[in-house]
Amino acid sequence: MRQDARSLVLIPARMASIRLPDKPLADINGMAMICQVYDRALEADIGTPWVATDSIEILEAIKHHGGKAVMTRTDHSSGSDRIWEAICKIDPEKKAEYIINLQGDLPTIEGRLIRQSLQPLLDTSPDDGGADIATLAVEIGEQSEKTNPNVVKIIAKQLDETRMRAIYFTRATAPWGDGPLYHHIGIYAYRRPALEKFIGLQPSPLEIREKLEQLRAIEAGMQIDVSVVDTLPLGVDTKEDLQRARKWFQTKD
Fold this sequence. Notes:
By secondary structure, the chain is of the alpha/beta class. It has a domain at about 1-110: Spore Coat Polysaccharide Biosynthesis Protein SpsA, Chain A, CATH 3.90.550.10. The protein is built from 9 helices and 11 strands. The chain has helices spanning about 35-45, 55-65, 80-90, 110-120, 145, 190-200, 205-210, 215-220, 240-250, and strands spanning about 5-15, 25-30, 30, 50-55, 70, 100, 135-140, 155-160, 165-170, 180-190, 225-230. It has a 5-stranded mixed β-barrel. It has a two-stranded antiparallel ribbon with strand order 2-3. A hairpin with a 2-residue loop joins strand 8 (about 155-160) and strand 9. Helix 1 (about 35-45) packs across helix 4 (about 110-120). It is globular, with a radius of gyration of 17 Å. The two termini are about 25 Å apart. The relative contact order is 0.17.
């Protein structure tokens, strides 16, 4: 797939993890985790990846890896705010039409999934009712995940076999009754004006209650479309997650 000059992949990263100190620099298969994520973004080939960080250690790790990184302020309350500062620095001429916000703790995410996160925006335009934001979901297979509040679920309208329109995001087991439940995967693709609008909004009541930033967009009437994918990338939040990620790479090799 040709690298798309109209888009940029931004990976926000900071060292403030409580459960796993210095998480972005944790070694996975001989490489810092943030460098593994950077390489997954390169494999997606949908735009130049940049790491947006407030840490000189992360900046130096990415530059030593041969990647691109930019320093941002230390007082950002969210990754969205951090990537917006970064975008304004690296693309002041506003050439990029699409911004992908890729979490820095998804070292096993496949490039094709990153591409799929952008696809709903490429398939439509704002003039014909296209989404402002796009993201990913996968059907929950394990029963324990359905009741786990750390697993964010999407309540959505089905558009076709692989596409949904988000109605709500929740930590609860929802929707009720028979039928599939969907696990939200934390990657977002924004049209540039949508990201600018989003970071200008105040935290919303449901966002504060559920502790889910994407509800701010829903409450503001912004449209989020969802690509349904077939695999769940491993997020690294704990030492146990880190060990699983290391084993995943050993198996892959």
